[in-house]
Design brief:
Elements (H helix, E strand, L loop, with lengths): L2 E7 L1 E2 L11 E2 L2 H17 L6 E8 L7 H14 L7 E6 L6 H10 L3 E7 L3 H6 L6 H13 L5 E7 L6 H14 L3 E6 L7 H9 L6 H17 L3 E4 L2 E3 L6 H7 L4 E4 L4 E4 L2 E5 L3 H10 L4 E6 L2 H12 L6 E2 H8 L3 H14 L3 E3 L3 E4 L1 H5 L1 H9 L5
Parallel strand pairs: 1-4, 1-11, 2-3, 4-5, 5-6, 6-7, 7-8
Antiparallel strand pairs: 8-10, 9-10, 12-13, 13-14, 15-17, 16-17
Helix pairs in contact: 1-2, 1-10, 2-3, 6-8, 11-15
This protein binds iron/sulfur cluster.
Iron/sulfur cluster (SF4) binds next to loops.
Length: 378
Protein backbone atom coordinates (compact mmCIF):
# COMPACT_ATOMS: atom_id res chain seq x y z
CA UNK A 1 0.00 0.00 0.00
CA UNK A 2 1.30 3.50 -0.74
CA UNK A 3 2.42 5.47 2.32
CA UNK A 4 0.91 8.63 3.74
CA UNK A 5 3.33 11.47 4.45
CA UNK A 6 2.58 13.70 7.46
CA UNK A 7 4.40 17.01 7.92
CA UNK A 8 4.09 18.73 11.31
CA UNK A 9 4.14 22.54 11.49
CA UNK A 10 4.28 23.51 15.19
CA UNK A 11 3.63 27.28 14.97
CA UNK A 12 0.53 29.25 15.96
CA UNK A 13 -0.22 33.00 16.11
CA UNK A 14 -1.60 32.58 19.63
CA UNK A 15 -2.12 29.58 21.88
CA UNK A 16 -5.77 28.63 22.35
CA UNK A 17 -6.83 28.09 25.96
CA UNK A 18 -7.82 24.43 25.45
CA UNK A 19 -5.01 23.29 23.17
CA UNK A 20 -3.03 20.18 23.99
CA UNK A 21 -1.22 19.79 20.66
CA UNK A 22 2.51 20.02 20.05
CA UNK A 23 2.80 23.71 19.12
CA UNK A 24 4.38 27.03 20.11
CA UNK A 25 4.19 30.70 19.22
CA UNK A 26 5.17 31.71 15.72
CA UNK A 27 8.68 33.11 15.35
CA UNK A 28 9.91 33.95 11.84
CA UNK A 29 13.56 32.95 12.39
CA UNK A 30 12.64 29.70 14.12
CA UNK A 31 10.19 28.90 11.34
CA UNK A 32 12.88 29.45 8.66
CA UNK A 33 15.26 27.10 10.48
CA UNK A 34 12.47 24.59 10.98
CA UNK A 35 11.54 24.46 7.29
CA UNK A 36 15.21 23.92 6.39
CA UNK A 37 15.38 21.11 8.97
CA UNK A 38 12.20 19.51 7.64
CA UNK A 39 13.59 19.48 4.11
CA UNK A 40 16.75 17.82 5.39
CA UNK A 41 14.82 15.20 7.36
CA UNK A 42 12.66 14.38 4.33
CA UNK A 43 15.75 14.08 2.09
CA UNK A 44 17.46 11.87 4.66
CA UNK A 45 14.51 9.46 4.74
CA UNK A 46 14.15 9.25 0.97
CA UNK A 47 13.67 5.69 -0.15
CA UNK A 48 11.71 6.15 -3.35
CA UNK A 49 8.71 4.30 -1.85
CA UNK A 50 5.20 5.04 -3.09
CA UNK A 51 3.27 7.72 -1.19
CA UNK A 52 -0.11 8.99 -2.30
CA UNK A 53 -1.04 11.52 0.40
CA UNK A 54 0.74 14.48 2.00
CA UNK A 55 -0.84 16.09 5.05
CA UNK A 56 0.38 19.35 6.62
CA UNK A 57 -0.89 19.32 10.21
CA UNK A 58 -0.14 21.41 13.23
CA UNK A 59 -0.08 23.87 14.84
CA UNK A 60 -1.10 26.17 12.04
CA UNK A 61 0.45 25.11 8.71
CA UNK A 62 -1.24 28.02 6.92
CA UNK A 63 1.27 30.33 8.65
CA UNK A 64 3.90 29.02 6.21
CA UNK A 65 4.56 30.98 3.04
CA UNK A 66 3.28 29.34 -0.15
CA UNK A 67 6.91 29.08 -1.37
CA UNK A 68 7.81 27.07 1.76
CA UNK A 69 4.85 24.75 1.25
CA UNK A 70 5.95 24.28 -2.35
CA UNK A 71 9.52 23.45 -1.28
CA UNK A 72 8.25 20.82 1.20
CA UNK A 73 5.89 19.23 -1.35
CA UNK A 74 8.71 19.17 -3.91
CA UNK A 75 10.97 17.65 -1.24
CA UNK A 76 8.40 14.88 -0.67
CA UNK A 77 8.12 14.33 -4.42
CA UNK A 78 11.91 14.03 -4.77
CA UNK A 79 12.16 11.61 -1.85
CA UNK A 80 9.14 9.39 -2.60
CA UNK A 81 7.20 8.31 -5.68
CA UNK A 82 4.18 10.62 -5.34
CA UNK A 83 1.61 10.44 -8.18
CA UNK A 84 0.24 13.63 -9.76
CA UNK A 85 -3.21 12.99 -8.26
CA UNK A 86 -1.97 12.54 -4.69
CA UNK A 87 -4.15 14.11 -2.01
CA UNK A 88 -2.26 17.09 -0.53
CA UNK A 89 -3.99 18.62 2.52
CA UNK A 90 -3.09 21.79 4.40
CA UNK A 91 -4.69 22.59 7.75
CA UNK A 92 -5.55 26.27 7.86
CA UNK A 93 -6.87 28.73 10.41
CA UNK A 94 -9.43 31.16 8.96
CA UNK A 95 -7.64 34.32 10.18
CA UNK A 96 -4.37 33.42 8.45
CA UNK A 97 -5.57 33.21 4.86
CA UNK A 98 -6.05 35.72 2.06
CA UNK A 99 -7.17 34.98 -1.46
CA UNK A 100 -3.60 35.53 -2.65
CA UNK A 101 -2.07 33.16 -0.08
CA UNK A 102 -4.68 30.51 -0.88
CA UNK A 103 -3.92 30.83 -4.59
CA UNK A 104 -0.25 30.44 -3.68
CA UNK A 105 -0.94 27.25 -1.70
CA UNK A 106 -2.95 25.87 -4.59
CA UNK A 107 -0.21 26.68 -7.11
CA UNK A 108 2.25 25.01 -4.71
CA UNK A 109 0.36 21.72 -5.07
CA UNK A 110 -2.12 21.76 -2.18
CA UNK A 111 -5.47 20.36 -3.38
CA UNK A 112 -7.37 19.99 -0.11
CA UNK A 113 -7.86 22.45 2.75
CA UNK A 114 -8.97 21.68 6.28
CA UNK A 115 -10.14 24.77 8.16
CA UNK A 116 -10.27 24.84 11.95
CA UNK A 117 -13.61 26.66 12.26
CA UNK A 118 -14.74 25.05 15.56
CA UNK A 119 -17.98 27.08 15.83
CA UNK A 120 -20.15 29.50 13.87
CA UNK A 121 -21.06 31.40 17.05
CA UNK A 122 -18.82 34.29 18.01
CA UNK A 123 -19.36 33.99 21.76
CA UNK A 124 -18.22 30.35 21.63
CA UNK A 125 -15.14 31.25 19.57
CA UNK A 126 -14.28 33.95 22.10
CA UNK A 127 -14.66 31.55 25.01
CA UNK A 128 -12.17 29.27 23.26
CA UNK A 129 -9.81 32.27 22.70
CA UNK A 130 -9.83 31.64 18.96
CA UNK A 131 -8.60 34.53 16.84
CA UNK A 132 -11.31 34.35 14.16
CA UNK A 133 -15.00 35.20 14.08
CA UNK A 134 -17.77 33.25 12.39
CA UNK A 135 -17.84 35.88 9.62
CA UNK A 136 -14.08 35.44 9.08
CA UNK A 137 -14.56 31.67 8.78
CA UNK A 138 -17.25 32.18 6.11
CA UNK A 139 -15.00 34.64 4.30
CA UNK A 140 -12.05 32.23 4.40
CA UNK A 141 -14.24 29.49 2.95
CA UNK A 142 -15.43 31.79 0.13
CA UNK A 143 -11.82 32.76 -0.62
CA UNK A 144 -10.87 29.09 -0.78
CA UNK A 145 -13.56 28.51 -3.40
CA UNK A 146 -12.41 31.58 -5.37
CA UNK A 147 -8.86 30.28 -5.24
CA UNK A 148 -10.10 27.05 -6.89
CA UNK A 149 -10.27 24.62 -3.96
CA UNK A 150 -13.00 22.07 -4.61
CA UNK A 151 -12.09 19.82 -1.69
CA UNK A 152 -12.49 21.60 1.62
CA UNK A 153 -13.07 20.23 5.10
CA UNK A 154 -14.31 22.18 8.11
CA UNK A 155 -13.74 21.18 11.75
CA UNK A 156 -16.37 21.88 14.38
CA UNK A 157 -16.24 21.21 18.12
CA UNK A 158 -19.15 20.28 20.35
CA UNK A 159 -19.64 20.25 24.13
CA UNK A 160 -18.18 23.75 24.43
CA UNK A 161 -18.55 25.85 27.59
CA UNK A 162 -22.09 27.26 27.82
CA UNK A 163 -23.13 25.52 24.57
CA UNK A 164 -26.67 24.12 24.42
CA UNK A 165 -27.80 21.40 22.00
CA UNK A 166 -29.57 24.12 19.97
CA UNK A 167 -26.40 26.26 19.87
CA UNK A 168 -24.44 23.29 18.60
CA UNK A 169 -27.00 22.49 15.93
CA UNK A 170 -26.89 26.11 14.72
CA UNK A 171 -23.15 25.65 14.03
CA UNK A 172 -23.89 22.42 12.17
CA UNK A 173 -26.45 24.33 10.07
CA UNK A 174 -23.86 27.06 9.48
CA UNK A 175 -21.51 24.42 8.10
CA UNK A 176 -24.19 22.89 5.90
CA UNK A 177 -24.99 26.33 4.43
CA UNK A 178 -21.41 26.61 3.21
CA UNK A 179 -21.45 23.10 1.75
CA UNK A 180 -17.89 21.82 2.31
CA UNK A 181 -17.00 18.40 0.89
CA UNK A 182 -15.97 17.07 4.30
CA UNK A 183 -16.51 17.83 7.98
CA UNK A 184 -14.96 16.65 11.23
CA UNK A 185 -16.93 16.92 14.47
CA UNK A 186 -14.96 16.67 17.68
CA UNK A 187 -15.94 16.67 21.30
CA UNK A 188 -13.97 19.30 23.27
CA UNK A 189 -11.79 17.56 25.82
CA UNK A 190 -10.53 19.89 28.51
CA UNK A 191 -7.27 18.43 29.75
CA UNK A 192 -6.33 18.87 33.45
CA UNK A 193 -4.02 21.91 33.15
CA UNK A 194 -5.81 23.70 30.34
CA UNK A 195 -6.04 27.48 30.99
CA UNK A 196 -9.67 27.16 29.87
CA UNK A 197 -10.42 25.44 33.19
CA UNK A 198 -9.54 28.60 35.15
CA UNK A 199 -11.40 30.81 32.70
CA UNK A 200 -14.44 28.60 33.08
CA UNK A 201 -14.23 28.77 36.86
CA UNK A 202 -13.89 32.59 36.80
CA UNK A 203 -16.75 32.99 34.33
CA UNK A 204 -18.83 30.31 36.08
CA UNK A 205 -19.22 28.58 32.75
CA UNK A 206 -20.13 24.94 32.53
CA UNK A 207 -20.53 22.29 29.86
CA UNK A 208 -23.81 20.55 29.13
CA UNK A 209 -24.76 17.32 30.93
CA UNK A 210 -23.44 14.03 29.47
CA UNK A 211 -26.87 13.16 28.04
CA UNK A 212 -26.87 16.47 26.16
CA UNK A 213 -23.38 15.78 24.83
CA UNK A 214 -24.73 12.47 23.47
CA UNK A 215 -27.67 14.36 21.93
CA UNK A 216 -25.27 16.83 20.32
CA UNK A 217 -23.47 13.98 18.63
CA UNK A 218 -26.56 12.06 17.55
CA UNK A 219 -28.55 15.10 16.37
CA UNK A 220 -25.51 16.68 14.69
CA UNK A 221 -24.90 13.48 12.72
CA UNK A 222 -28.60 13.13 11.86
CA UNK A 223 -28.65 16.73 10.56
CA UNK A 224 -25.62 16.01 8.38
CA UNK A 225 -27.22 12.75 7.12
CA UNK A 226 -30.29 14.72 6.08
CA UNK A 227 -28.08 17.21 4.22
CA UNK A 228 -26.56 14.39 2.14
CA UNK A 229 -23.31 13.83 4.00
CA UNK A 230 -22.18 10.29 4.69
CA UNK A 231 -20.64 9.49 8.00
CA UNK A 232 -17.62 7.24 7.38
CA UNK A 233 -15.82 7.45 10.72
CA UNK A 234 -16.80 8.20 14.32
CA UNK A 235 -15.99 11.91 13.92
CA UNK A 236 -15.98 12.40 10.16
CA UNK A 237 -18.51 12.84 7.37
CA UNK A 238 -17.99 13.50 3.67
CA UNK A 239 -19.70 13.85 0.35
CA UNK A 240 -19.36 10.50 -1.47
CA UNK A 241 -15.75 9.99 -2.57
CA UNK A 242 -14.42 12.90 -0.48
CA UNK A 243 -13.28 10.96 2.57
CA UNK A 244 -9.84 11.95 3.84
CA UNK A 245 -7.54 9.54 2.04
CA UNK A 246 -4.72 10.41 4.39
CA UNK A 247 -6.60 9.80 7.63
CA UNK A 248 -8.04 6.56 6.22
CA UNK A 249 -4.51 5.16 6.40
CA UNK A 250 -4.49 5.51 10.20
CA UNK A 251 -7.80 3.68 10.48
CA UNK A 252 -7.09 0.98 7.90
CA UNK A 253 -3.90 -0.66 9.20
CA UNK A 254 -1.73 1.11 6.63
CA UNK A 255 1.62 2.86 7.03
CA UNK A 256 2.87 6.44 7.08
CA UNK A 257 5.96 8.57 7.55
CA UNK A 258 5.77 11.58 9.86
CA UNK A 259 8.24 14.46 9.55
CA UNK A 260 8.91 17.27 12.00
CA UNK A 261 8.95 17.63 15.78
CA UNK A 262 6.74 15.17 17.63
CA UNK A 263 5.71 13.42 14.40
CA UNK A 264 5.31 9.67 14.49
CA UNK A 265 5.71 7.08 11.78
CA UNK A 266 4.71 3.48 11.27
CA UNK A 267 6.93 1.95 8.66
CA UNK A 268 7.69 -1.72 7.95
CA UNK A 269 6.10 -2.66 11.26
CA UNK A 270 8.20 -0.18 13.28
CA UNK A 271 6.62 2.71 15.22
CA UNK A 272 8.86 5.74 15.71
CA UNK A 273 8.33 9.13 17.30
CA UNK A 274 10.46 12.22 16.76
CA UNK A 275 11.64 14.48 19.56
CA UNK A 276 8.79 16.85 20.51
CA UNK A 277 10.67 20.11 21.08
CA UNK A 278 11.00 22.33 18.01
CA UNK A 279 14.42 23.71 18.94
CA UNK A 280 15.84 20.27 19.83
CA UNK A 281 14.50 18.95 16.56
CA UNK A 282 16.28 21.72 14.62
CA UNK A 283 19.60 21.13 16.43
CA UNK A 284 19.41 17.35 16.06
CA UNK A 285 18.78 17.64 12.33
CA UNK A 286 21.68 20.11 12.03
CA UNK A 287 24.10 17.86 13.97
CA UNK A 288 22.96 14.67 12.26
CA UNK A 289 21.80 13.30 15.65
CA UNK A 290 19.07 10.76 16.18
CA UNK A 291 15.64 12.39 15.95
CA UNK A 292 13.63 9.43 17.15
CA UNK A 293 13.01 9.34 20.88
CA UNK A 294 10.91 6.19 20.59
CA UNK A 295 11.32 3.29 18.25
CA UNK A 296 9.72 -0.10 18.67
CA UNK A 297 8.89 -3.02 16.47
CA UNK A 298 5.20 -3.72 16.66
CA UNK A 299 4.41 -7.32 17.50
CA UNK A 300 1.76 -9.09 15.42
CA UNK A 301 -0.50 -9.03 18.49
CA UNK A 302 -0.17 -5.25 18.84
CA UNK A 303 -0.78 -4.72 15.13
CA UNK A 304 -3.83 -6.95 15.28
CA UNK A 305 -5.29 -5.05 18.24
CA UNK A 306 -4.65 -1.72 16.53
CA UNK A 307 -6.16 -2.93 13.28
CA UNK A 308 -9.28 -3.95 15.19
CA UNK A 309 -9.81 -0.89 17.32
CA UNK A 310 -8.84 1.58 14.61
CA UNK A 311 -11.06 -0.32 12.16
CA UNK A 312 -13.95 0.02 14.60
CA UNK A 313 -13.71 3.81 14.17
CA UNK A 314 -14.92 3.33 10.60
CA UNK A 315 -18.64 3.15 9.87
CA UNK A 316 -18.04 0.17 7.58
CA UNK A 317 -16.16 -1.41 10.48
CA UNK A 318 -13.02 -3.48 10.80
CA UNK A 319 -12.47 -5.59 7.68
CA UNK A 320 -12.32 -9.06 9.19
CA UNK A 321 -11.41 -10.90 6.01
CA UNK A 322 -8.34 -8.72 5.59
CA UNK A 323 -7.40 -8.80 9.26
CA UNK A 324 -7.87 -12.57 9.58
CA UNK A 325 -5.78 -13.29 6.50
CA UNK A 326 -3.08 -10.81 7.54
CA UNK A 327 -2.78 -12.01 11.15
CA UNK A 328 -3.85 -15.63 10.69
CA UNK A 329 -6.45 -15.63 13.44
CA UNK A 330 -10.19 -16.02 13.82
CA UNK A 331 -11.37 -12.74 15.38
CA UNK A 332 -14.65 -14.13 16.64
CA UNK A 333 -13.04 -17.15 18.25
CA UNK A 334 -10.53 -14.90 19.96
CA UNK A 335 -12.78 -12.07 21.18
CA UNK A 336 -16.36 -13.24 20.61
CA UNK A 337 -17.19 -13.89 24.29
CA UNK A 338 -16.21 -10.35 25.23
CA UNK A 339 -17.88 -8.73 22.21
CA UNK A 340 -21.21 -10.54 22.48
CA UNK A 341 -22.63 -8.35 25.34
CA UNK A 342 -22.13 -5.24 23.16
CA UNK A 343 -23.99 -6.94 20.32
CA UNK A 344 -26.83 -7.85 22.64
CA UNK A 345 -27.13 -4.16 23.57
CA UNK A 346 -27.32 -3.14 19.90
CA UNK A 347 -23.99 -1.31 20.04
CA UNK A 348 -22.03 -3.63 17.79
CA UNK A 349 -22.76 -5.63 14.64
CA UNK A 350 -20.78 -8.69 13.58
CA UNK A 351 -21.60 -9.92 10.09
CA UNK A 352 -18.65 -12.23 9.41
CA UNK A 353 -17.04 -9.81 6.95
CA UNK A 354 -17.00 -6.74 9.20
CA UNK A 355 -17.23 -5.85 12.84
CA UNK A 356 -18.83 -2.44 13.22
CA UNK A 357 -20.30 -0.08 15.77
CA UNK A 358 -23.83 1.19 15.40
CA UNK A 359 -24.23 4.97 15.86
CA UNK A 360 -25.31 4.58 19.50
CA UNK A 361 -22.34 2.22 19.85
CA UNK A 362 -20.05 5.02 18.67
CA UNK A 363 -20.91 6.93 21.83
CA UNK A 364 -19.45 4.03 23.81
CA UNK A 365 -16.63 3.25 21.40
CA UNK A 366 -13.94 3.35 24.08
CA UNK A 367 -15.66 0.66 26.12
CA UNK A 368 -15.92 -1.63 23.08
CA UNK A 369 -12.38 -0.92 21.94
CA UNK A 370 -11.09 -1.75 25.41
CA UNK A 371 -11.88 -5.41 24.61
CA UNK A 372 -8.87 -5.43 22.29
CA UNK A 373 -6.57 -3.51 24.59
CA UNK A 374 -7.36 -5.32 27.84
CA UNK A 375 -7.87 -8.75 26.39
CA UNK A 376 -6.37 -11.65 28.35
CA UNK A 377 -4.78 -12.90 25.11
CA UNK A 378 -2.50 -9.85 25.07
S1 LIG B 1 -4.65 27.02 16.52
FE1 LIG B 1 -4.91 24.82 16.91
S2 LIG B 1 -2.82 24.05 17.33
FE2 LIG B 1 -2.77 26.30 17.51
S3 LIG B 1 -3.05 26.72 19.65
FE3 LIG B 1 -5.10 26.82 18.70
S4 LIG B 1 -5.92 24.72 18.90
FE4 LIG B 1 -3.72 24.62 19.30
Amino acid sequence: MPLGLYVHIPFCSAICNYCNFNRGLFDGDLKNQYVAALLKEIRGKADGGDADTIFFGGGTPSLLEPGEVRAIIDGCRDAFAVPADAEVTLEANPETVTRERLEGFRAAGVNRLSFGVQSFRDEELQRLSRLHSAARAREAFAMAREAGFDNVSLDLMMWLPQQSVADWLSSVEGLIELGPEHASLYLLEIYPNAPLRDTMARGQWSVAADEDAAEMYLQGMATLDAAGYEQYEISNVARPGRESRHNMKYWSDEEWHGFGCGAHSTRKGVREKNVASTSEYISLVASGGRLEVESRSLSDQTRLEEALFMGLRLVKGADLALIESRYKIDVWQMYGDELKPFMDLGLLIYDDAHLRLTRPGMLLANEVMAVFINSPVR
